[in-house]
Design goal:
mainly alpha, membrane
């Protein structure tokens, strides 16, 4: 369901159509929790997951509602707004993953909250070249204004210092969230760690953007790191994130 919702914004030409799809998923979730899922493959699998793992309806509806608000297609007003969006989408998905793993732990929930926020911030940064090519900029406006970086600077792929400073500030906040998440690691049950392995990918991007001096348009950032699978295996084996 999450991947379908994520694609709605880019796959529709009219906001109204996107909102109709969001309403479909809201209705679907309500019907699933009434034990009357629509006759549709994704809905049927979601219903089975809900019955098997006792997934919380609130997290699903929160993801849908936040994606629905995102159909407004505008830049985040500030970093806090981006973090709130990330909490309501990425963190909510992690809460569902923890439930599917049978984990009910307050420390794991705190870690999930921070990892979700870090993931949302990194996703926003990673997508900047793609969005800019479509003449769209979603980076927090308060940070852009602080460094006097205009939307046009990003649209034309500027690699000037003020643009790098914007990226530095945003990336630094993602790094802070990863550090906070890891501060709970000693108190989290081992069964929760598989839900947090995406920290490997997040850390990899933050390290690479730092190596290119926060030039978000550097070609190397569009290439996949072939060592990621090995790093994921190593973290999984060590039960760390």
């Amino acid at each position: 369901m999450s991947s379908w919702l994520r694609q709605v914004k880019d796959s529709v030409s009219q906001k109204t159509i996107g909102l109709m799809r969001m309403q479909f998923w809201k209705t679907t979730v309500e019907e699933i929790y009434r034990d009357d899922p629509p006759v549709q493959p994704v809905s049927a699998e979601l219903w089975r997951a809900v019955k098997k793992h006792y997934l919380t309806k609130r997290w699903m509806l929160r993801i849908i509602s936040e994606r629905e608000k995102d159909m407004e297609d505008r830049a985040y007003r500030n970093l806090q707004e981006l973090e709130a969006y990330s909490e309501n989408t990425q963190s909510s998905l992690l809460y569902l993953l923890l439930e599917s793993l049978g984990v009910k732990d307050v420390h794991a929930d705190h870690a999930a909250s921070h990892i979700g926020k870090a993931q949302g911030i990194v996703t926003c940064l990673r997508a900047t070249p793609y969005h800019s090519s479509r003449r769209k900029v979603y980076l927090p406006m308060d940070i852009c204004m602080l460094h006097r970086a205009s939307q046009e600077d990003f649209i034309r792929g500027s690699r000037e210092q003020n643009v790098r400073d914007v990226v530095y500030d945003i990336a630094s906040q993602a790094h802070v969230h990863l550090q906070h998440a890891r501060s709970f690691s000693k108190n989290i049950p081992a069964s929760a760690f598989p839900a947090f392995l995406q920290t490997v990918v997040l850390e990899d991007y933050l390290q690479r953007v730092r190596r290119v001096d926060f030039d978000v348009f550097h070609p190397s950032l569009q290439k996949r790191n072939p060592l990621i699978p090995i790093q994921l295996y190593f973290r999984s084996w060590k039960k760390t994130y």
